[in-house]
Amino acid sequence: MEKDTYKTLATPSPEMLFKEKNSKFFGYAYPVTTEDEVKALLADIRKQHHSARHWCYAFQLGTETVYYRANDDGEPNNSAGMPIYGQIQSFGVTNVLVIVVRYFGGVKLGVGGLISAYRTSAQMALEESEIIEKTIDSYFTLAFGYADMNRVMRIIKEKNLNIVSQKMENDCEITLSTRKQNAPMVLEALQNLYGITIK
Description:
single chain, five-stranded antiparallel β-sheet, 5 helices, alpha+beta, Ribosomal Protein S5, domain 2, Alpha-Beta Plaits, 31% helix
């Protein structure tokens, strides 16, 4: 059976501090669903740590189609963003942004040292986060007349569907969601209702 759940964070992590040869690395993990949220959180962290040297990050969005980005922000190529992204992958989470802020302490760490420090900071932030499992949902919009309201409501109750939104004007329109693996069965039950359009 196709997987219809994914793991993400319940809430942002506390700030985690990792020190390596006088450099300080602050790690943060956030649940996010859009790139706009990513940009806003990065802007916040840059304000908060305006005197830091680097603000490196990685994020992954999406459940079935995944989109990710890793940014070294001036550190040597692949020494920061990818190690952070590697932790997102190893925790198996998505819709997540991890930022690691570095204050340079005067001692160069070398690429190996940087990879290790960014990886550890990301890992600490993710370890301190509450990871939850959510379902991947399918959405249906039903359009029907008032006369069919009771039949529709009965199925919503029987199949334990979530009502995402509803418009009750001359005709009724309800958007429902259900976890993906139940979708074919729900669709079948709804298609058996005469006089109802499914989008």
